[in-house]
């Protein structure tokens, strides 16, 4: 056997041509990441249609996006300036549990674990402190409500990083990444894919026929073509698992409006009669959108609700969007991998769309195939994609299920609907014992789950017995100290607008 045959390297089996269809956020995030890590020995081509627009939404992110930007070695201040971005410390949910009630899902922790026991047990068990909102012990939530922001605060003389994400203009973000990818050798073709050619024997995709008559061949095809899934569904007929019965919202109307000088460092989610409305502050406008269930509300009424609850005068036209909630049965089928909306969609309540793109890219990099397309790699990719999406699905369903609202048919349905067993188990464990566990590769931490379980009014019947290792007076005094410390840290932060003006103002571009 020659050295070549004996080698563990892929050699001739190596993927040489990657073709990405779609130039939305998913396409350009994928192209940018592949261009960064693959180097020039692999050809990467991205095809985007001039006739089919992108969804042009996806303005709120979660903190993991920073890891993606760091992989690309992006300059965060420059990125925010070019995308009119602001900082995000959490999401406020208004009228979800009941009308005139609000809570926050912040990105940072509450207090600190004491003797290994999560802080919320001490808060729940304290007769002196349980009346105060638990967000008083969370720096990110306190700063958010005070309109403050810093990337670092000081605790006992040491810098402590803040947990934050961004709000940004999604179209500008994709454009920024497009420049990045093209600078690193990605070939950009603006043309329409008219036909997809597959092998008669294997069913693998071989090439794409473009409107211009050009034929683009490839080894690996990445489907970032949006909801319709041009390759993964329309060509490979992979199948779709529908979750519409748990997540009724299937439509949205997005429309920006003017913003004054005040842009809070958090997203707002206002529950409405058959869905909810987002308010996302950017440096130059509010991003607004009404997500609703079309079975319960007509489109013109949905537009009225959006306008009635906008913080300022609309600018720009409404953008109407419709989708099917659920997941593609296999995100990776044959030599095609679906990333972005083509892989499935969960409504944007917890801003997980771009994160799902990012995590699919990181899974692809870990399980990157050669031209043999080993089934074990594909199966792992599909298993992890499914598990990740199911856990996020459960987290989003929780917001609808755990409500006291029955004032409209929509909310009455949600309050009474059956939910997945995996979610029931999580709620029951918490209800019985205050305990929360993060399963396998689950995206949302115990802190996130606690924020929503508690915010949506679920009270545990018991707390962790180990809290009793500390005397009541000692616990209460520690809680007082931690609260004071949190408030002082927030006080010392800059005003969010001032921080942006100093570091990443869009006017600096
Ligand atoms: C209402 C709503 C709100 C959202 N809010 C958030 C949020 O706050 N945060 C978040 O993280 N995510 C959010 N998302 C999700 C996020 O917008 C998407 O995950 C992200 O934009 C990725 O979209 P995409 O690139 O997969 O698809 P698209 O943006 O639809 O892009 C599809 C691309 O495919 C191209 N294409 C299609 N057909 C062809 C063809 N035949 N030939 C050539 N090219 C073709 C199109 O030209 C386009 O470039 C939201 C989604 C929706 C629907």
UniProtKB/TrEMBL annotation:
Instruction: Tell me the enzyme class.
Output: oxidoreductase
Name of a matching Pfam family: Trp_halogenase
Say yes or no: keyword Oxidoreductase present: yes
In the UniProt record, does the keyword Glycoprotein occur?
Answer: no
* Catalytic residues of the enzyme: 88
- Tree of life domain: Bacteria
One GO molecular-function entry: monooxygenase activity
**According to the UniProt entry, what is the EC number of this protein?**
1.14.19.9
**This protein's UniProt keywords:** FAD, Flavoprotein, Nucleotide-binding, Oxidoreductase
Binding annotation for FAD: 23-26, 193, 341, 350
Where, in this chain's numbering, is 7-chloro-L-tryptophan bound? 88
Name the UniProt record assigns to this protein: Tryptophan 7-halogenase
The organism's taxonomy opens as: Bacteria, Pseudomonadati, Pseudomonadota, Gammaproteobacteria, Alteromonadales
């Amino acid at each position: 056997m020659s050295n070549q045959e004996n080698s563990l390297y892929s050699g001739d089996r190596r993927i040489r041509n990657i073709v990405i269809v779609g130039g939305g956020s998913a396409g350009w995030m994928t192209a940018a990441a592949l261009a960064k890590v693959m180097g020039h020995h692999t050809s990467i081509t991205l095809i985007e249609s001039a006739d089919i627009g992108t969804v042009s939404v996806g303005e709120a992110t979660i903190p993991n996006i920073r890891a993606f930007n760091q992989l690309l070695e992006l300059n965060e201040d420059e990125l925010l300036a070019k995308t009119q971005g602001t900082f995000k410390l959490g999401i406020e949910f208004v009228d979800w549990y009941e009308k005139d009630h609000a809570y926050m899902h912040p990105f940072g922790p509450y207090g600190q674990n004491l003797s290994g026991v999560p802080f919320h047990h001490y808060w729940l068990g304290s007769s002196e402190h349980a009346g105060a909102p638990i967000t008083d012990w969370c720096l990110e939530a306190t700063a958010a409500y005070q309109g403050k922001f810093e990337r670092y605060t000081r605790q006992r003389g040491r810098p402590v990083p803040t947990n934050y994400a961004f709000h940004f203009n999604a179209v500008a973000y994709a454009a920024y990444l497009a420049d990045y990818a093209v600078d690193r050798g990605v070939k950009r073709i603006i043309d329409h894919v008219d036909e997809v050619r597959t092998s008669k024997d294997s069913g693998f995709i071989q090439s794409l026929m473009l409107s211009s008559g050009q034929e683009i061949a490839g080894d690996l095809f990445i489907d970032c073509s949006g909801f319709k899934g041009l390759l993964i569904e329309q060509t490979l007929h992979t199948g779709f698992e529908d979750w519409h019965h748990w997540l009724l919202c299937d439509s949205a109307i997005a429309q920006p409006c003017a913003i004054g000088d005040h842009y809070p460092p958090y997203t707002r989610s206002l529950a409405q009669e058959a869905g909810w409305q987002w308010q996302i502050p950017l440096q130059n406008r509010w991003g607004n959108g009404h997500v609703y269930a079309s079975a319960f509300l007509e489109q013109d009424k949905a537009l009225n609700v959006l306008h009635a609850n906008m913080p300022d005068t609309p600018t720009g036209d409404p953008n109407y969007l419709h989708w099917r909630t659920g997941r593609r049965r296999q995100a990776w089928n044959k030599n095609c991998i679906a990333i972005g909306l083509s892989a499935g969609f969960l409504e944007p309540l917890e801003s997980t769309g771009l994160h799902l793109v990012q995590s699919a890219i990181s899974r692809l990099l870990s399980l990157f195939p050669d031209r043999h397309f080993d089934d074990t790699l594909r199966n792992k990719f599909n298993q992890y994609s499914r598990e990740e999406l199911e856990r996020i699905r459960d987290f989003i369903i929780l917001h609808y299920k755990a409500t006291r609202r029955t004032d409209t048919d929509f909310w009455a349905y949600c309050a009474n609907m059956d939910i997945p067993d995996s979610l029931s188990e999580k709620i029951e464990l918490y209800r019985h014992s205050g305990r929360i566990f993060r399963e396998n590769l689950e995206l949302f931490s115990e802190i996130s789950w606690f924020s929503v379980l508690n915010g949506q009014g679920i009270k545990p019947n018991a707390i962790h017995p180990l809290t009793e290792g500390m005397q009541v007076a000692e616990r209460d005094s520690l809680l007082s100290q931690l609260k004071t410390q949190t408030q002082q840290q927030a006080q010392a932060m800059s005003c969010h607008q001032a921080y942006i003006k100093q570091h990443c103002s869009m006017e600096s571009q």
